[in-house]
Design goal:
TIM Barrel, about 140 residues, single chain, 3 strands, mainly alpha, 3-stranded parallel sheet, 6 helices
């Protein structure tokens, strides 16, 4: 898929977040698709949408580019705006299902608070998946 401009990509993600059925934005970390991360995180806070920290984006064999640079910025903004994240394995083969090694390392390295990682507790996950869920973590 051909990348848009930063403004086009940002507008597309924010538009998706306005859909009440969208609860999580998957791997917003690919530097080939530039984003205004502050605007994306602010919209996630406003629309009550979580952002994914994708394990496979951080793997040495990742097809997406730049996650090691973009995710620290995203996580810093998520801490500032109290936006929850979800760690995802994005497994493309059975033995990687549930493998969160690289995502967990990134969360620890960035000092990201566990209370904002929604898949550490079913009650927190329900806040996102519940149609009336809110981010009061």
């Amino acid at each position: 898929m051909k990348p848009g401009t930063e403004e086009e990509n940002t507008d597309a993600l924010i538009g998706a977040m306005k859909n009440p059925y969208v609860k999580i934005i998957g791997h917003p970390d690919d530097a080939r698709y530039p984003l205004n991360y502050r605007a994306v995180v602010q919209a996630a806070a406003r629309e009550k949408v979580a952002l994914e920290i994708n394990n496979s984006s951080l793997a040495p064999t990742a097809s997406r580019k730049g996650a090691h640079e973009t995710l620290p910025e995203i996580l810093k903004l998520c801490m500032e705006y109290r936006v929850p994240v979800i760690a995802g394995s994005d497994a493309h083969i059975y033995y990687d299902v549930g493998n969160l090694e690289y995502a967990e390392e990134m969360l620890v390295r960035c000092g990201f608070p566990e209370e904002l990682v929604i898949n550490t507790d079913l009650k927190k996950l329900d806040l996102v998946l519940n149609k009336n869920g809110c981010f009061s973590l």
